[in-house]
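This protein record is not my work; I was only asked to verify it. Would you go through it and say whether the fold makes sense for this chain? Here is the record exactly as it was handed to me.
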Amino acid sequence: MKRILRALKRGYRAMKHESLIWDLNDSFLTVSGEEYGYERESLKLLIDKVPKKRLMVEVGSLIGFSTRFFSQYFEEVISVDPYCPGYDPKDKNSGVIRLLIARDLFKIRFLDDPVVRQINQSSEVAAEDFNNRSIDFVYLDGGHDYDAVKRDIMAWLPKVKIGSVIAGDDYPWEGVKKAVCELLPDHDVHDKRWISVVK
């Protein structure tokens, strides 16, 4: 990770944003003095519900903390993230500089990882390239407003195999909870994450 940190600092020095990146490892990031930890163990509760761990899609990967965790359990992990700024004024991660940092961190982190690949397209556009009932697990952590979550569920739900799982993060957010309750009334909640078995 020190190599990644040095490479990012060199790149952001030219942009006069070197001081934004302070520290980094696989579960912890400091950006501009702000600390980001990532608790991943509750993800294991969701993963355990997936019958076959072949193909999974993660919508909204940002820096790739959860992506790394998923790659330990699935044969193929596809990240979908367009890194488009301004998608949600309530989400601090939608700022231009944050997304540039996140995009670069993700690309460097998974450069030599044969399990993970990333599609830099919107969720709905990326979903069109997958056959119906072809995915073992979809994890949604993109936009968190009601319309964005509803679009993501409607785009990806038909792609998940019957008996497999669609899930997502940040259930306490008003928009997330409303969309999930409306479209997936039989869902369960573990910690701050929601899960639904496709029937």
